[in-house]
Write a structure and sequence with these properties.
This protein is an all-alpha fold. The chain contains 13 helices and three strands, in the order H-H-H-H-E-H-H-H-H-H-H-H-H-H-E-E. Helices cover 63% and strands 3% of the residues. It has a three-stranded antiparallel sheet. Helix 4 packs antiparallel against helix 5. The longest helix is centred in the N-terminal third of the chain and has 25 residues.
């Protein structure tokens, strides 16, 4: 694929260019960890690095693949049209980051609700601040329970770091909140990626016919999106395979210009992605 494949993509935000969340915006909005000087920031990141290495991500790949297959099957059973964001992209990104973080399934919807309140400015600064405090209290309890843990998920690693006195509980909680929110931002990345594929049917057809080029295509797509990381790569690869192969007739159910994008949010992605097949 040439880089022009992605460069020619029109801005999906009507009325102006897409606004990506800058590093400074994200750090100031999410907590104090991002504002630490490099040595302290590096120390904290190192404590959870293994969860986000290729090996750590591979640890959840097969479970993620099964979860995604179930979501796609449910969408197909319900029949068209469907909102791809609501039916697949959103639930999948929540499930993957929660697997990496070690958030139990029973708590995931609550954590997701907090994340959206924090990220969505229309709810107001007060609601976002309240949600951030509640999420912080949740992670404080979860990390505290996992002090001395040998688990490989993020909260277990943070609990172990606190137990070894390599990190304070407050620092660990700030980092957990930052990572959880950043992981859920992949929903918006996925939405933008599929907006590109669904408005460029010739590109989608090529990826269906030449599956061997998909990894390189995902690389090119991710280079144009914010928050590109190992969480993002895993989800993107699985989503492209599952939706291009499993739903061969997938296409937009509305004209491209009618796809609604989030307004007033620091990360721009489709609020809904109406599709049919």
């Amino acid at each position: 694929m040439s880089e022009e494949t992605i460069d020619e993509t029109p801005s999906p935000v009507r009325g102006g260019p897409a606004r990506y969340l800058s590093g400074a915006d994200f750090d100031q909005a999410r907590g104090t960890v991002g504002l630490l000087d490099a040595p302290e920031h590096t120390r904290l990141r190192r404590s959870v690095a293994t969860a986000f290495t290729a090996r750590g991500v591979e640890r959840v790949r097969e479970r993620s693949r099964r979860m995604l297959a179930e979501l796609v099957d449910e969408m197909l059973q319900d029949g068209p049209p469907a909102d791809l964001t609501e039916a697949v992209l959103g639930p999948f990104s929540i499930a993957v980051i929660c697997e990496l973080m070690g958030v139990p399934p029973v708590d995931r919807q609550g954590v997701h609700t907090w994340t959206r309140l924090i990220l969505s400015s229309p709810h107001g600064a007060e609601a976002g601040e309240k949600a951030k405090k509640e999420m912080g209290a949740y992670f404080s309890d979860l990390i505290g329970l996992r002090e001395g843990s040998t688990g490989e998920d993020v909260t277990s690693l943070l609990g172990a770091a606190v137990g070894r006195r390599e990190s304070t509980l407050e620092e660990a909680v700030d980092l957990a909140v930052l990572l959880q929110i950043g992981g859920e931002a992949v929903t918006d990345n996925s939405g933008r990626m599929f907006y590109v594929l669904l408005t460029r049917p010739e590109l989608a057809d090529r990826l269906r016919g030449e599956p061997e080029i998909r990894p390189r295509a995902v690389d090119e797509l991710l280079r144009r999106l914010p928050h590109r990381n190992a969480v993002a790569r895993l989800e993107s690869e699985l989503l492209v395979d599952a939706l291009l192969d499993g739903v061969p007739g997938l296409r937009l159910a509305v004209p491209a210009e009618e796809v609604p994008f989030r307004k007033g949010a620091p990360i721009s992605g489709p609020e809904a992605l109406p599709v049919t097949w």
